[in-house]
Amino acid sequence: MTKKNNPDLVGINDTTLAFTELVQKATRAFLFFKRIYNSFRNSYLCTKIIPMFKSNFISINDVLIRKEVTETPFVCDLDKCKGACCTLESDYGAPLKVDEILEIAKALPFVKDILSENHWEEIEENGFYEEKDGELLTRSVNNEACVFVYFENEIAKCSLEKVFFEKKTAFQKPISCHLFPLRVSEFGGEILRFEKFSECGPALEKGKEINVTALEFCQSSLERKYSKRWYKKAKERTGK
Questions:
Q1: Which residue, among 104, 78, 72, has the nearest Cα to 192 in the 3D structure?
Q2: CB 83 within 8 A of CB 157
Q3: pLDDT digits over 135-150, tens only?
Q4: Neighbour order of strands in the sheet with 182-186
Q5: SS3 for 133?
Q6: Helix H segments across 3-87?
Q7: String of DSSP letters for 65-129
Q8: Cβ of 111: how many Cβ atoms within 10 Å?
Q9: Closest CA to 137 of 181, 93, 81
Q10: pLDDT at 30
């Protein structure tokens, strides 16, 4: 827009002209983005996906918590399940972190006398962990019981946890085990989810009976992984 091409502009100073042009550009930009906003607001993403996401997740300090974590009743009932989570038949053991391997190695002298002969032989011959598909995992015996399992009154228990509670070590057990039945998935950030197992039926019944959710049952492990402040926020967001 120039004075030469538009006679109506003759007599208007350059500053006023420049301001007028700026306002016109800003108006065109506003109308453009308004059309984009209206299209987005009416899109499937905005009307379906985002509301569904909000209704199924809670966000605490960049950690997404699936609603079933806060709503599913759960309290382990060892007398009925017999420690099934430690003896599930699978090609994969419990996920490990590098620093956990170092801590477990320190605990080996203390668990040796607790473990059965075949479990200790497995550790001596093959080690207590393995790598599969790029992931570090605890080793198991015959793809069933974890190598650190010992039995007490026919209930599978963790030898690492036993020596921890006896104050012989400072490491309780892998955080993946401590969090069970919760699992952490990576999807551009951490997602905390509840993992269902048919063997945990008694835990669902007991949780319902005494009104305790999976989130509450895993308080100590969640505080260990994230912090007491994080757990407090999670509880507040669930209204409990």
A1: 72
A2: yes
A3: 999 999 988 999 999 9
A4: 57-60, 63-66, 190-194, 182-186
A5: coil
A6: 14-41, 44, 50-56, 67-71, 78-81
A7: EEHHHHHSB----HHHH-SGGGT---S---B--HHHHHHHHHHHHHHTTTS-HHHHHHHHHH-SE
A8: 24
A9: 93
A10: 73
Run of H or E including 227: none
Condensed to tens digits (0 to 9), the pLDDT of residues 9-26 reads: 445 456 665 666 776 777
By C-alpha distance, which of 136, 157, 39 is closest to 93? Answer: 136
The closest alpha carbon to 194, from 102, 203, 146, belongs to 203
DSSP state of 13: -
> What's the predicted TM-score (pTM) here?
0.75
Angle at 106 between CA 102 and CA 112, to 5 degrees: 125
Which burial class, exposed, middle or buried, applies to 207 when counting CB atoms under 10 A from its CB (0-12, 13-18, 19+)? buried
Residue numbers in the chain where pLDDT is lower than 50:
3, 8-10, 12, 45-50, 52-53
